[in-house]
Amino acid sequence: MISLLRRLSTSPPLLMEPANSCVGSQRLLALAQQLRLYKPPPFSSDDDIEEQRIEEIAHKVVSQVGFAESNTPIAQDPERFRPKRAAVLLCLFEGDVGDLRVILTKRSSKLSTHSGEVALPGGKTEEGDKDDGDTATREAKEEIGLDPSLVNVVTVLEPFLSKHLLRVVPVIGILNEKEAFKAAPNPAEVEAVFDAPLEMFIKDENRRSEEREWMGNKYLIHFFDYETKNKKYIIWGLTAGILIRAASIVYKRSPPFVEQNPIYKVPRVVDINTTIP
After folding, report:
1. For residue 275, is it within any domain?
2. Cofactors per UniProt (predicted)?
3. Most exposed of 29, 49, 132, 158 (fewest Cβ within 10 Å)?
């Protein structure tokens, strides 16, 4: 999945403050205070125009490139083919050696889309979700058994755009009591739950990239190779892009490699070949 960073929302969602948010190390408390001050970059008029154009022609775009979550013809269910909003949870905690780590999943190999890929817990917004933090923590509970009351949601990042024109909002939360979380993956969705050091995603170790082109713009896809408990994982695409961005914000420094994303523009003419590689 390709990570195309876009600013697609005009107001940040409300942030949750669980009852146990005062618990945790001084480092985590300082991090929470730091991240609450983060503000996504402001919108430009071009962003607003592009957002409107996405809404206006989205039914045409997805009917041509295909909407992975459904095979329902657009004529039968047009509401289903509007651009959807989703949220993923970057749940950070302090490791045994004092490093910051993030919880990741390996999707079930039985899923019809992105099977076997590494992902962040999350999913589409549902009716009843109060905000993006609510979506992300609800999905994390459904996927890996993470109790939302254990997560202190502190900020959200700029939305990313998936290859299926899904707006994906990264939500950063802090797990102060890691011992209280016992992973219980939903076998229908998740094959494995593991964690990785967040700082890894702004280092040039165990990283490779591929250059691709879409609609005349060249961009890079980053791949991170990671091994833990004798299991090997490849973290790439949308997930890698979100983690690079989050690590840059948390550690207040840019990665030593080029983080290159194309300038996303909805094409005026869409045909069956208009897909994101």
Report:
1. no
2. Mg(2+); Mn(2+)
3. 49
